[in-house]
Amino acid sequence: MLFSSMLFLWLFLPVVFVSYYLIKKEYRNVLLLISSIIFYAWGGVSYTLIMFSSIIINYIFALLIDKAIEEDNKLKKKIYLSLCIVINLSILAYFKYTDFAISIINSISKKEVISLKNIVLPIGISFYTFQALSYVIDVYREHNKAQKNIINLALYISFFPQLIAGPIVKYHDIDTQITERTENLENISYGIKRFIYGLSKKVILANMFALSCDEILKQPIGDIGTALAWLAAVLYTLQIYYDFSGYSDMAIGLGHMFGFKFLENFNYPYISKSVQEFWRRWHISLSTWFKEYLYIPLGGNRKGKYFTYLNLLIVFFATGLWHGASFNFILWGLWHGFFLIIERVFLGRLLEKNKLKFLNNIYVILVFVLGWVLFRANNLAHALELYKLMFSYKESFYTVRYFFYPQTLVCFIFGILFSGIFQSLFPKIKIAIFSSKVYLLESIIQFILLFICIMYLVNGTYNPFIYFRF
Questions:
Q1: CB neighbour burial string for 33-45, b if at least 16 within 10 angstroms, e if fewer
Q2: Helices 45-70 and 74-109: crossing angle, nearest 10°?
Q3: Which end of the chain is less enclosed by CB atoms within 10 A, N or C?
């Protein structure tokens, strides 16, 4: 079930929302859990059984770790954590990487040694597995006590706003909200506003960029010239930002509507002046997860510069692999890891000293635009063909105008403005105009945006979220 589907907007969400505020507080977590199970089961009942297994496994191991802590048995505690991590990652690896590993073996052998299993990836497994691991590791580190109420733990792992595509909510960031949270009109109002903005990002902007980008990349590679290759890369850069940040906005908005406050997942990454800054602003929940649960345990930057560089490569190799079983994703992760190391070696100092900060922006834009080519390309060969086109000169069989529809141009302008430029000016606009007028205008804009989104959805516009496949 998609947040941007009519079923969700006009049936599921209203029924759950109204029911939530009609029943007593002590039953609200149960209602949210049942609603989350229905939401997830809509994509396949068998997937739900896998998620249930994850909940039960992590529930049991957290209790065992908690008991070992009470007994002051450090060996037992480590064994339980190790087993729990191995089981969680084994389940994830089976569904996500088995066919990838088989294809590598067959490729090296130059024959089909093992047949592909064609395993279907359960929706959201990468997200809820990382959430579950966050919980168990937090219990191990004694940041939290084990949750003895399995309904509360199940709600944490399966809560529908962030179940499918994040943000990845770490247990210590939300543990108290599971049982005690603020539910008021202010939170509901903010949640609705945030949801509408996220829906607009997805339906109006991301889908329009996807339409043009997909049409370009559907063409035979010989018909795509240099200009179109760059256009596709730029369009995808905007598409993935508005697609994923739009989903995060909707998830955060839904959370507020039910009293939960999730941490931000994006902070206008495309205005970054270094790759380090980009990763402090992009998919914040994933980057902080890897920092807390992989980079720091590996030693972080505490063991000298060479170990720091190695740790960064390991983390970004894992980041790429987390996104998908493909050399494209692995190289995409290592691409970013490489620039993070270069910035630590010397480039970071040059960027800080540079007085023409727009040059820093251009550098970062080139890094992530070129990186997104790997992310979007069908395979490594396709990515290399696109790079060849981008760094040579070849006439296109089609003109740029053929794919750059008038609607795309309008969305492109708004996409650039709202990727960080407008937001930096908005506080000044608020000061210049009476606040009441600004908020009235904002309310009118929200209504118009919602109306436009509904028109698109009624007309059958459909484009699943990019991060659903991870």
A1: bebbbebbebbee
A2: 140
A3: N
Write down the pLDDT at residue 433.
46
The structure tokens listed for 47 are 């997937």
Q: Give residue 434's pLDDT band: very low, low, confident or very high (50, 70, 90).
A: very low
Residue 165 CA to residue 118 CA, distance in Å, equals 22
CA distance 438 to 429: 8
Query: Residue 73: which residues within 8 A CB-CB, separation 6 or more?
Result: none
Q: What is the dihedral of CA 376, 380, 386, 387, to 10 degrees?
A: 110
Q: What percent of the chain has pLDDT over 90?
A: 76
pTM (2 d.p.): 0.93
Neighbouring C-beta atoms of residue 393, cutoff 10 Å:
8
Task: Assess contact for 344 and 308: CB atoms under 8 A.
Answer: yes
CA torsion sign for 424, 425, 431, 436 is negative
The amino acid sitting at 282 is W
Backbone angles phi, psi at 295, to 5 degrees: -60, -50
**Cβ(91)–Cβ(50) below 8 Å:** yes
Angstrom distance (rounded) from CA 3 to CA 9:
7
pLDDT band at 428 (very low <50, low <70, confident <90, very high): low
Q: Which of 196, 202, 209, 199 is nearest to 407 (CA)?
A: 209
Question: Out of 46-55, 113-122, 318-327, which region has the weakest mean confidence (pLDDT)?
Answer: 113-122
- What are the tens digits of pLDDT across the range 126-161? 999 999 999 999 999 999 999 999 999 999 999 999
Q: DSSP string covering 173-219, please?
A: HHHHHHHS----HHHHHHHHHHHHHHHHIIIIIIHHHHHHHHHHHHS
Taking the CB of residue 135, how many other CB atoms lie within 10 A of it?
26
Q: How many CB atoms lie within 10 A of CB 64?
A: 20
- 463 or 206: which leads in pLDDT: 206
Q: Report the distance separating Cα 126 and Cα 119, nearest Å.
A: 15
pLDDT of 438 strictly over 70 = no
What is the structure's pLDDT at 397? Answer: 73
Count how many Cα atoms sit within 13 Å of the Cα of residue 369 in the half-sphere of its side chain: 18
Q: What angle do CA 252, 374, 116 make, to 5 degrees?
A: 95
User: Is 323 in the active site?
Assistant: yes
Q: How far apart are the first and last CA of the chain?
A: 16
- Catalytic residue, from 283, 323, 336, 382: name it: 323
432: which 2 tokens?
A: 């210049």
List Cβ neighbours of 327 (8 Å cut-off, separation of 6 or more).
380
